[in-house]
Amino acid sequence: MSRRRRAVKREIYPDVQFGSRLVGRLVNTVMKCGKRSVAQRVVYSAFDQIVENNEGVTALEILEGAVNNAKPRLEVKSRRVGGATYQVPMEVSGERSEALALRWIVSFAKSRKGSAMSNALAKEIMEAYQGEGSTIRRRDEVHRMAQANKAFAHFRW
């Protein structure tokens, strides 16, 4: 990490089909080795499966609900104070919490072996939307860690 200056945030472009920045970020998170068309095919086929199984609700609404459910509010960061390292609970910014939620959804979808990525992604998004599954367990685990280390909150700066 460079200490010279702050990294410039690049603009995330909305995706082609839905015109949503959130879907664009999801495509970027799924993408490997710069293969955007493959990632888009995976995401859009997952959305088709979601819409197929849920009548009356759009895939975009379900994705937004899933990401909102999976967003962490607190996380722990390591702070070195006087030779000791403390896990200090800190509030998570909106952009980072969204990035973490998307990253967790995609990583747990990838870890589901035995099914296609689009099927696994659709299942993971639906589970996060319903407030259950691996992504929600990870969020709760992060919150529990922050709660357990609340005594070190005074090391925040």
Q: What is the subunit organization of this protein?
A: single chain
How many distinct beta strands?
2
Helix content: 40-55%
Strand order of the largest sheet: 1-2
Order of helices and strands: HHHEEHHH
Q: Low-confidence stretches at least 5 residues in length (pLDDT < 50)?
A: none
Question: Largest sheet, if any?
Answer: 2 strands, antiparallel
* Radius of gyration (Å): 18 Å
What percentage of amino acids are in beta strands? 5-15%
Shape: globular
Mean pLDDT: 93
Separate helix tally: 6
> Which structural category do the helix and sheet elements fall into?
mainly alpha
Distance between the termini: 19 Å
Description:
With 157 residues, the protein is mainly alpha-helical. It has six helices and two strands. It has helices at residues 21-30, 36-53, 59-70, 94-110, 117-130, 134-148; strands at 74-81, 84-91. A two-stranded antiparallel ribbon has the order 1-2. The longest helix is centred in the N-terminal third of the chain and has 18 residues, at 36-53. The mean pLDDT is 93.
